[in-house]
Amino acid sequence: MADLTIVGGGLAGCEAAWQVASRGYQVDLFEMRPIKSTGAHITSNLAELVCSNSLGSNLPDRASGLLKNELRRLDSLLLKIADQCALPAGGALAVDRDRFGQQVTQAISDHANIRLIREEVQSIPSGPVIIASGPLTSPALAASITQLTGSDHLFFFDAIAPIIRADSIDMQIAYRASRYEKAEEVDGDYINCPMEREEYEQFVTALVQAERIPLRDFESEISAGVKAGAGIFFEGCLPVEIIASRETKALAFGPMRPVGLWNPLTGKRPYAVLQLRQDNLAGTLYNMVGFQTNLTFPEQKRIFRMIPGLEHAEFERYGQMHRNTFIASPLMLNPSLQLKSDARIFFAGQITGVEGYMGNIATGLLAGLNAARMLEGKDTVVPPPACMLGALCAYITGAEIKHFQPMKANFGILPDLPSPASAKRERAAQYATRALETLEQWITGLGIV
User: Do 119 and 237 fall within a single domain?
Assistant: First the structure.
């Protein structure tokens, strides 16, 4: 009989399973795919990266880079595999998503203390359990969670960007460059499709007027007092057509900003730029950076081919939208990620209200660490709020519920610095230095790694 049950084989569930199993406990890890699909996943791999292949910045003085360094120090399995599967992406950590999923699946399947069970869990299991069922939690399990907590779950809509075949990109128009690359760097990590003002304005007009996929009935219900419809988009992952509808120049100042991307073919900076990021190790697929969308597939093909360099683009996958579910963590969870009403139950991953791949891995690691400590008869722990992991947990469990939205790693949730530098980059470095020093003291004091 397993010591712990984990529901969900995504980023959080796999990291949690590894952390518990590596401490000598038996884990049953349930993943319903491929027996039951989510509508957003494509493969049967564990830890499948659905929305993008980028895990965010890898720079030590960026919030996402800091969280990665914290997780490296805490011996994260998934981050170790991500580093092994890295692709060229400038200062970001992007991976070959198929290779990444395959390696995580292999590592989990091969662990002697983990039993992988391909089966849907429709109700919360008895005994110690980590719920890491993700933003696409099945309706049956969501109903069980609602019944247990006595509160409706929340939801918002998330979107996925299209993926294009590299050999269909016109490199007579598009060019390689990374933002702010040095003069000696002749081959940047991104493919850039430049637009002049007239081309951009025509594109935006077509984008705003394009036909969208109607939201399904179950995705337009009202839950937890939140009005359904166009207002329930997560601001950090807006469909490109929603951004464009807000203001004509919104894309040019957002995902299509041309700053630092001079066109070597003209010697000038374009009015706007679409960036394409390598999506697989072979370099045959590229995804449209920041171009999450809910346009119909024919409209995506028609309108995105208006972008210079993509006139003959072939789409390996079209963009789409799906419902993301998350619980009211400020009401339900302690910073240890334990349910306030039942300490044997932990939650981890995007269902808690963290956003981004790294937040999922981070909360999975902490939930796994605390579940193992509970099995050992020890007190659960919470990283100091001066660490990015500690700050994330403090936010999702302490935010004002009225304005609670998913949160990703950012310096704004860390405690103020006593003597902050005036320059933004130097101030970020101060935050990062303090966070890692604080984390090291915490680790040493507890002897947890």
Answer: no
